[in-house]
Amino acid sequence: MLLIRIIKMIYNPEEDSFLLLKHVKEYAKGRILDIGTGSGILAEEALKYTKNVLAVDVDEEAIELCKSKGINAVRSDLFSNVKGKFDLIIFNPPYLQEDNSEDNETRLAVSGGKKGYELIESFLKEVKNYLNDNGKILLLFSSLTNKNKVDKIIKENELKFRLVESERLFFEVLYIYLILK
């Protein structure tokens, strides 16, 4: 009964999660951090290839769900409770523009800020401090987030990137970037 209540509070995997999931296997080596883990689907996949996976989320219920699945999980707002460096950081952030008609819970799960990219920008400003020398980032975002702005933020933070995959869905395009120091 408790598990059903928890799942309702957590971002359930959708097309974006499944698109990113396809690429975890290729890059899941060494120490891995899954930021904004939600249901833990990406951390679970990473655990198939390495046992050193940390999942973080701002939502305590997401953390409890992950722990119930045997995933090492900690409540953290981006890197606030993260220590050390990682070989891979996976981030499927909320990336939609803020919608004032949404309740706070929904907004937390899907909104990346007023313009949609602010959370990604905060992440990219800090991420180098948590990457090993040859560390990699898998980042997913949408054309609704403003791809040109995300590209610019990556470059401003002296990171390199390449498009791993894109997929058109209805009224948006999803992008997966591999980002390096």
Give a summary of the structure in a few sentences.
The protein is α/β, with parallel strands linked by helices.
Description:
The model is unreliable at 1-8 (pLDDT under 50). Strand 5 (96-97), helix 5 and strand 6 form a beta-alpha-beta unit. This protein is α/β, with parallel strands linked by helices and 181 residues long. The protein has helices spanning 2-9, 15-27, 41-46, 60-68, 104-110, 118-126, 147-156; strands at residues 32-35, 53-57, 73-75, 86-91, 96-97, 111-113, 131-142, 160-169, 172-180. The strands form 2 sheets. Strands 3-2-1-4-7-9-8 form a 7-stranded mixed beta sheet, sandwiched between helices. The protein has a two-stranded parallel sheet with strand order 5-6. Helix 1 (2-9) crosses helix 4 (60-68). It has a single domain (2-180), classed as Rossmann fold (3-Layer(aba) Sandwich). Helices cover 34% and strands 30% of the residues.
User: If you average the pLDDT, what whole number results?
Assistant: 87
From the N-terminal CA to the C-terminal CA, the straight-line distance is 44 Å
Largest sheet: 7 strands, mixed
The CATH architecture assignment turns out to be 3-Layer(aba) Sandwich
Q: How many DSSP-defined strands?
A: 9
Number of helices: 7
Strand content range:
25-35%
- How many discrete structural domains? 1
Helix content: 25-40%
Regarding quaternary structure, how should these chains be classified?
single chain
Strand arrangement within the widest β-sheet reads 3-2-1-4-7-9-8
Query: Which outline best applies?
Result: globular
Radius of gyration: 15 Å
CATH class: Alpha Beta
* CATH-defined topology: Rossmann fold
The CATH superfamily turns out to be Vaccinia Virus protein VP39
- SSE ordering: HHEHEHEEEHEHEHEE
Low-pLDDT parts are 1-8
Structural class: alpha/beta
